[in-house]
Amino acid sequence: MHRAFPVAFGALVLGIGAAAAAAPPAIYPLAKVKRGQTGYGLTTMKGSTPERFTFEVVDVMHNFLPDEDIILVKSDDPKLAVTGFWQGMSGSPLYIDDKVACAFSYGFSFNKVALGGCTPIEYMTRDGIDKHRRGGTTGGVGTPPTTIVPTAASMDEWRRLTPSGSLDEAWRALGPERGDWLSAVPMPPKPSKPTNDQMMTASVPLALGGFTGPAFAKVEQMFGDYGLAPMRAGGAGTAVPGTGPKEFTMGGSIAVELIRGDMSAAATGTVSYIDGSRVLAFGHRLFQVGELYAPVSTTNVHTVVPSAQSAFVLASPAREAGALIQDQQTTIAADTMLRTPMIPMDISIVTTSGVGASAHTEKGEFHVQLLDNKFLTGALAGAAAMSAVSHYLPDRDHITARIESMVKIKGAEPLRFVDYLYANDGAGSVVGGARALRALIPLLFNPFAPVVVERIEMKVDMRFAADFGEIKEVRLPAAPLPPGKRAFVDVVLATYDGKDVVDHVPVDVPLALAGGIVQLEVSAGDGARLDAAPPVDLPSLLSAFGKLLPGNVYAVSLYASDEGVALDGKIVRDLPASALDKLHPASTTQRVASYRPVARTLSPAARVVDGSVTVLVRIADAK
């Protein structure tokens, strides 16, 4: 199940005019396509006006993809002599006898001639229009609804992220705290590939503007398996108002906007077919996730860049002209009568180097809007934050940072976090310390209720210093720990300059642990296991976020050997064995789950702490 797009300002239908009254283009049937037939195609090579090029049918390849034949075509048109078929040409309509037969969609690398495949329009209209004409999520063609109810993720998706259902497990699935969690973000399932490995999807250029080198590389890594080819393209953000085409045309360029603002990302292809307000493009999938909602824009094409491997187009979005609604194997489909809101994200950076009179401070702000999607929002937010941080952290290794981060969910109080961290490997770890960004993943994948993210904020204060200690050893007092009282343990920290520091750290010992042997763990706050029951609804999930801890506190945890229970999202401690037997779950329900009790003492640290040490300790008998 995929998230439907949220309602903006109470309605999605805007007063942008009625659907075009003109009949859709006539379709040349696949059954009549024969070797040697010739025709012409439409594509945009510069500016916004499509141009004609000639082609010849080579053959029809059957079962190229599941339930999909492909038409193999070649062209000796002088316009394609240098570039051949190029990335961004995906969707260019090809006509036989002045009827549209297919949309160019597949090509070869290192090709000496313009040779490639195109997707029959019959398949595209089947998947992009006919399946959704009646009773579909977006209503009939030309009659879009005024309200679309968003949906939660499925329980299966939540279980894949966290098999036991606990938020702590979902948190750990993203990797260690302060780590490069972007590498572990759940992404859409990888789409199917052509059976012939020598033929590749005509990759979609992903024009990136405003991204630093490290962030660009991370985006390239995240989208590399989806046929998206990231490339530098300045000015790929929101166009100057009043410029560029106002509406889509056959063979015109179309952009799907993932990010816009001070950083931008737009996937560029070509319009294949227009039926009223419904626009089909690409001739293949973007991610192939079914329902997918994103702004689509007309574009201005700067030029086509020749390449020995595969030529590509440079283009920038011009005017928002509709919303993407479907992402299928054969096509993407948009509706010009709809608009989908994006999520605003504000990032502010403060860096300070030097001390006293020689201290130097830099400040910067970045404002972007993100695609609203359970798979992609977290990844895009992390990439934008990484770009902002790495802009001010190009060659610095050792920093300590204070991060304020916030995510606002519609109908709930904002989730606010303050994190302290030390990083010696650049921007990835700094971004990894922003808990609001990590929280986006379990929030958007929660199976309890749909969430609408209204805003994301991140404020980073970086100081180029190494005020940091890694937990090296825990020294216990000679006598057993006294029950019902506060005791102290000595925590040995290894610091950056090679000197050990010893902190005297308190631990409160519950009376109920008297006479037992328990496991004592000393860790940084953000490395401690979350002491919360598995959530059973959205309020209990949001409440559990409030128990996450920052990295500048000690968390001393005592784990008893006895078992407790989590019941309806609440922890029930100190139950007798007979009650535990009765409450043990006989199925996978989260209403009743076993829980290992923990007693935790928190205390401030004088520096950012990392690591953990676990030892067995004896608790004295009660007097």
Could you explain the architecture of this structure?
- The protein is mainly beta and 623 residues long.
- It folds into 4 domains: 30-121, Thrombin, subunit H; 130-151 and 182-335, no CATH class; 343-463, no CATH class; 468-618, no CATH class.
- Helices cover 13% and strands 39% of the residues.
- It has 9 helices and 31 strands.
- The protein has helices at 121-128, 155-161, 167-173, 213-223, 376-391, 427-432, 435-444, 538-545, 577-583, and strands at residues 38-43, 51-65, 68-75, 93-96, 99-107, 114-120, 200-201, 204-209, 228-232, 253-261, 264-275, 278-281, 290-305, 312-327, 332-335, 343-353, 360-370, 399-409, 415-423, 453-463, 468-475, 486-495, 500-508, 517-524, 553-559, 564-567, 570-572, 592-595, 598-604, 608-610, 612-618.
- A 6-stranded antiparallel barrel has the order 1-2-3-6-5-4. The chain has a 6-stranded antiparallel barrel with strand order 10-11-12-15-14-13. The chain has a 4-stranded mixed β-sheet with strand order 23-22-21-30, with no helix packed on it.
- Strand 13 and strand 14 (312-327) form a beta hairpin.
- Helix 4 packs antiparallel against helix 5 (376-391) and helix 5 packs antiparallel against helix 7 (435-444).
- The longest helix is centred in the middle third of the chain and has 16 residues, at 376-391.
Structural class determined from secondary elements: mainly beta
- In terms of DSSP E residues, the strand content is 35-45%
Give Rg in angstroms.
29 Å
Uncertain ranges: 1-20, 134-148, 235-239, 563-571, 575-595
Q: Which descriptor suits the 3D outline? A: elongated
Helix content: 10-25%
How many distinct helices? 9
Oligomer: single chain
pLDDT average, as an integer? 80
Number of domains: 4
The major beta sheet can be summarized as: 6 strands, antiparallel, barrel
Number of strands: 31
User: Terminal Cα separation, in Å?
Assistant: 58 Å
Q: Main sheet: which strands, in order across? A: 1-2-3-6-5-4
